[in-house]
Amino acid sequence: MKNIQSDLNEQLLQQDFVYETEQLQLEQCQLIAQNFVELENGIAILSDLKNNKSYIYSGKIADELNIFQNRNQLEIESIWEDELFNILNPDDVLQKHILELQFFQFIKTVAFDKRKDFCIICKLRLLSNSRSLIHKMFYFSDVHHKNVELALCLYHFDFLPSSDYTGMIINTAEGSIIQQTEVENSNFLSAREKEILKMIQSGKKSKEIADVLFISINTVNRHRQNILEKMRVSNTTEACTLATRLKWI
Amino acid sequence: MKNIQSDLNEQLLQQDFVYETEQLQLEQCQLIAQNFVELENGIAILSDLKNNKSYIYSGKIADELNIFQNRNQLEIESIWEDELFNILNPDDVLQKHILELQFFQFIKTVAFDKRKDFCIICKLRLLSNSRSLIHKMFYFSDVHHKNVELALCLYHFDFLPSSDYTGMIINTAEGSIIQQTEVENSNFLSAREKEILKMIQSGKKSKEIADVLFISINTVNRHRQNILEKMRVSNTTEACTLATRLKWI
C-alpha cells in the first residue's frame, strides 16, 4: 500500500512537473512576445515546434506592412509565418532559414543552462521599398528532454539603412559573434540526404529507397531522422516542402 | 441620498482608477523590463520620475561589464544610473542626456495615444575597449495628467561595430526617423535659464535673483519651472548637478 501510494505520488508529481514546466515556458515566452510587441510595436512569432503551430503577436508595424490584418487569427497551424515572408526579399528569407537551421544544429551542442545566451540576428529587405527589418530569433529547450521546443522570432524596422551585414549567431551575454555566415545552400544537407529526400518527395517508401540505394532500411530511417532534425521539422512532408522552397532539392 | 451615493461611487471609482492605472503602468513596465533582461541578457533601468527613483534589472551583460554586482540593490534613489555611465565614453553619455531631454520636450507635443510609438536609440562607446552598447529609451505618460512619469532605458551590446551614428528619435510603428541630432549643449537651456541656474547653484533665492536681474519673482519662478521641465528633474538641486555634469553652466 505504502509503495503504491508513493509510486503514484511520484508519477503524479513528475507528470505534474513536466506539464507545469512546459506550460510555464510557453506562457513565459508568450508574455515575452506580448511585451516586445507592446513596447516596440514589432511583430513576434512564437513557434511551438512540437505541435507544429505558431502564435502571432503583431504590433503597429504589421499595419504599416499590411500583414496579419486578421486580428482574430492569433494562431496558425504551421511554424512558418508565410504572410510575412511573402513581402520580404526571397534571398534574405532563404538566408534566414539557413541561419535558423545552423543555429538549431549549434544550440544542441551548447549546455542546457547556457543556451539562453545565444540568438541569431539578421537583416531582411522588404520587397516593396528600400527599407529593411531586423530579425532576432531565440530557441527555448525543454528542461527534461533538452529538445528545442519553442522558437521566438522578433521583427522590427531597421533604423540604420546604411549598415549591411549577413546574419550571425551571437552571444548576447558576452557581446561576441559566434558565427557569421552566408552559406551555400548545398552544404546543409548531404548529397545522400538530398537524394533520399527527393525519393520521399516522389512518393517512395523507406523499403523502396533502401532497395534502390542498396542500403538497409535502418540506414534509410536514420537518414530520414537526421533530415528532420537538421531541418527542425516534424515530418518528411514538411521537410520536402521546405527543401523545395529553399531549392535544396 | 441617491446623489450622495452616486457622487461617492464616482469619487471612489475615480480614486480607485487613478491608483490602479499608475500602479498597473509601473507593474507593466517592470514586467517589460524583466522580460527584456530575461530574453536579451541586457540591462534595463526603469526610472520613476515622480518619485525620483529607479529600478535596476541587470542581465548577464552586467557581469561582463562588471557593474550592478550588488544583486540586492534593485532600487536606487535617483533616476541616473551612474554606475553604468561611469564606464561609458562621457561624450556619448552627454549626447544621450541631451537626446533624452529633447525627446522629453518632443513627447509632450505628441497626443497621448500616439506617445508609445516613439523612442530614442543611440550608441554608447565603452571606455575600456572598442565595443559599444545600443541604448533604447521609452517614456510612459500618466493617463490622467499626461505627465511623463516613467522612463525605461534598455541597454545591450552592439553587434555592428562598423556602423556609426548619432542618436535619434524614431517612430517604431512607421519605421521613420523623427530627429537625428548632435546638438550643441548651449542651445538647450536659454541664456537666461543658464544665468538663473548658476545663481541658484551659488545659493541665491528667487527673491535675490529677481532683484539682481530686475525681473519679478513670478518670472524667476516661471524660469525655474521651465528648467525643471526641460531637464526632467524634480528639483533645482538636481538640475544644478546635471547641468554642471553636462557643462551647461
From TrEMBL, chains A, B:
One of its GO terms (molecular function) is DNA binding. Signal peptide: none annotated. InterPro entries: Sig_transdc_resp-reg_C-effctor, Tscrpt_reg_LuxR_C, WH-like_DNA-bd_sf. Residues 182-247 form the HTH luxR-type domain. Pfam families: GerE (PF00196). Gene3D superfamilies: PAS domain, Winged helix-like DNA-binding domain superfamily/Winged helix DNA-binding domain. PROSITE patterns: HTH_LUXR_1, HTH_LUXR_2. The keyword Transcription regulation applies. It comes from the Bacteria. One of its GO terms (biological process) is regulation of DNA-templated transcription. Keywords: DNA-binding, Transcription, Transcription regulation. This is Helix-turn-helix transcriptional regulator.
